[in-house]
Amino acid sequence: MKLDRMSSTKHAFSPEKPTMRKLAPICLLVFALLQACENSTSQSNDGALLSAARQNRLHVGDLAHTQLEVYGSDGGYWWSWKIDDSTKVKGIRETSVSTGKPGVIGADALQTVVFQAISSGSTILTFKHYRFGEGDSTADSTIRYQIVVQ
To answer: What is the SS3 assignment for 99?
Structure first.
């Protein structure tokens, strides 16, 4: 009769039941990685994305940005912007990326404007979409961002 040696001894590769003590470090690592991914997707190097639907709170030195679709950018349309109190917030840079097919006249674009909070207080950023040669009184859209710098 042949003995089954495997059934009477503990195997070197036998799986152990995981315990909370052993799983805790792995769970913490996974949680930290998920947090890092969330932070990197919700904020870019341009800071937080501003919202026109709510008050935007920033700290002195913080960056924040807007991203607005420009309809007919090749036709002279653009988002013009102004800061009510430029002692609170300043514009840092402005970029535009075409979202339409190359070579199409009147193609849309995505306009990004980056701001930096420079002193405590509140101000309003106003964006108007119009053709530059026609002036802002012909704007077809206006968006306002309320900013509070702490």
So the answer is: coil
3-class secondary-structure state, position 97: strand
Q: How far apart are CA 68 and CA 52, in angstroms?
A: 11
Q: Does pTM top 0.70 for this prediction?
A: no
Any idea what the CATH number is for the domain that residue 142 is in? 2.60.40.2020
The parent domain of residue 127 ranges over 46-149
Count the helix, strand and coil residues of the chain and give each as a percent rounded to the nearest 5.
25, 40, 35
Please tell me the distance from the alpha carbon of residue 90 to that of residue 94, in angstroms, as a whole number.
12
Task: Write the pLDDT tens digit of every residue in 18-39.
Answer: 555 555 555 455 545 444 443 3
Count structural domains, the chain: 1
